[in-house]
Amino acid sequence: MDFYEVVRKRLSVRRYRPDPIPDEVLNRILEAGRLAPSAKNLQPWHFIVVKDERLRKELAVACRNQHFIAEAPVVVCGCADRNRCYAKMGGIIHSYPVDLGIAMEHIILAATAEGLGTCWIGAFEEPEVKRILAIPDHLTVVALTPIGYPAVQPQPRSRKPLDEIVSFDYYRKR
């Protein structure tokens, strides 16, 4: 599948088959996250791969009762080390949310290329996720994603046209 086809096919999946993901496939997906760019190449990430069914069910509750998360055979929790990131991105903010966002998107697109489904999970109770996965205080949970074979194919959602979201040379409100 070429890159643009992967981008077009990436949709949020909320129903998964229980089929396991072969280790070599999962390792290729995780490698894509490892190779993501980060500010000053500090790579402030740590990925927790959750396969244990009991833990996945607990995570689903901590993710505001999104029970479909536990259906997937794997959940990846993307954490950032706040002490190992660039602290002046744009002169004002820490880079770790962006760094982790890029790495998680690499994981999500790689999963799509492998014929797997994902769903970006940003609705979660961080203290609960940290408790469940024994995440130390210096790490921040940025996002999670279930990964698995889709049980049903989601329908594409509408997207704004380019001329509504792109300006050339300077900002122009449309």
TrEMBL record:
Taxonomic lineage from the root: Bacteria, Bacteria division WOR-3
Oxidoreductase found in the keyword field: yes
Similarity section: Belongs to the nitroreductase family.
Domain Putative nitroreductase TM1586: 96-168
Protein name: Nitroreductase
Organism: candidate division WOR-3 bacterium
One Pfam family per UniProt: Nitroreductase
Family annotation (CDD domains): nitroreductase
Molecular function in Gene Ontology: oxidoreductase activity
Gene3D superfamilies per record: NADH Oxidase (3.40.109.10)
Keywords: Oxidoreductase
